[in-house]
Amino acid sequence: MSGVSPIPLFEAYPGLTRRAPHVALGSWPTPVDSNNTLAESIGAASVSLKRDDVSGAIYGGNKVRKLEFLLGDALRRGAREVLTVGYAGSNHALATAVYAKQVGLGAISMLLPQVNAKSVQRNLLAGFHHGAELHTRPNVGALTRAVAWQFLRHVAKTRRLPYYIPAGGSSPLGVLGFVNAAYEVARQIEEGVCPTPDVVYVAVGSMGSLVGLHLGFQALRLPIRVVGVRVTPVDFASEAKVESLFGATVAALRKYDPSFPNVIMNPDLWELRGEFFGEEYGRYTEAGAEATGHLREAGGGSLDGTYSAKAFAAMKSDGDRGLLEDKDVLFWLTYNSRDMTPLTGEVDYHALPHAFHEYFETAVQPLDA
Ligand SMILES: *Cc1c(COP(=O)(O)O)cnc(C)c1O
């Protein structure tokens, strides 16, 4: 392993190594497991699972990839605190709190209400345990005003602006984490860890994973189709927004290293699917619950109802319709599988700001019970 960079994108573009901000947080590459039981049951030539669920020692999931670049930038700019936004159960807000603390930064989470689930309770307790300052507002307008207020308050307190991280960490800089993920998969293919997939399935919240993977595969000239399964409303994720994030990320890459190719999107090689969204963000679906049971029975681990279960349901439905015959499929496990209960067990929810108590005092949604 010596001499091999854990960031294959940097190896391909040394200009990025010198100029792009980066701080090491995760364990790379994440493993790829092949699962024959799954391949047989969905009628694909092969199914591989990309294990981003174990991307970090304390807390895994797909946000660790983006945070290596975002927190690298925060440190480079001399920030003391980072501020981010999301829904109450946001995996991104929790990942930010965990890894900001690890690199010596404070974290402020500005959160919107959502449907109740055990994962919402767990993430709130874990964020609090890691020292995040938690706030909530009832809607986007009120949250935006509260973010502006936090900026003023923290300038007064620390004489510095907090470093702002957008929802899901999907700024062009954050997306670099998933461009690198494409290079990581390419290296694993070369090493014979998995076959070259014909198609990759990934859940789409803030679009960074989908955009980064398609961008990376385009730069690598690998004809791998990326199917993004939308789990947020269209105001958060749409084709137009995917295209604009793609363009902004190419521009950011070329600013750091002008030798990075000026790639464009290939409409045959990416897709944004909406039919597995269900009623609303964070609302579990029957198809998602079935998918979760299906993966567990195949010995492939667990899925979360908000994101990965909906993406898996899309893959399973395509398989059931015979669309994956002869296809090598890669499913991206984006959810954390590290057990947080030893940490959260120590926290009494009464210590959280009062507005969050309702998540602990009301029932979780029926499909999560
Ligand atoms: C954030 C998240 C996603 C979506 O990734 P984006 O890059 O925001 O589209 C998928 N799965 C899980 C579990 C997540 O937390």
Number of helices: 14
Low-confidence stretches: none
Q: How does the overall form come out from the CA principal axes?
A: globular
Overall pLDDT metric: 96
**How do the helices and strands follow one another from N- to C-terminus?**
HHEHEHEHEHEHEHEHEHEHHEHH
How many angstroms does the end-to-end distance come to?
45 Å
* Helix-strand category: alpha/beta
Content of β-strand: 5-15%
Q: Tell me the total number of β-strands.
A: 10
Q: What oligomeric state is this?
A: single chain
Attached small molecules: pyridoxal-5'-phosphate
Calculate Rg over CA atoms: 20 Å
Query: What is the percent of helical residues?
Result: 40-55%
Report strand order across the widest sheet.
1-2-10-7-8-9
Largest sheet, strands/sense/barrel: 6 strands, mixed
Task: Report on this structure.
- Helices cover 43% and strands 14% of the residues.
- With 369 residues, it is of the alpha/beta class.
- The strands form 2 sheets. It has a 6-stranded mixed β-sheet with strand order 1-2-10-7-8-9, with helices on both faces. A 4-stranded parallel β-sheet has the order 5-4-3-6, with helices on both faces.
- Helix 4 crosses helix 8, helix 8 (172-190) crosses helix 9 (208-220) and helix 9 (208-220) crosses helix 10.
- The longest helix has 19 residues, at 140-158.
- Bound molecules: pyridoxal-5'-phosphate.
- Pyridoxal-5'-phosphate (PLP) binds next to helix 5, strand 7 and helix 9.
Search tags:
10 strands; binds pyridoxal-5'-phosphate; 6-stranded mixed sheet; alpha/beta; 369 residues
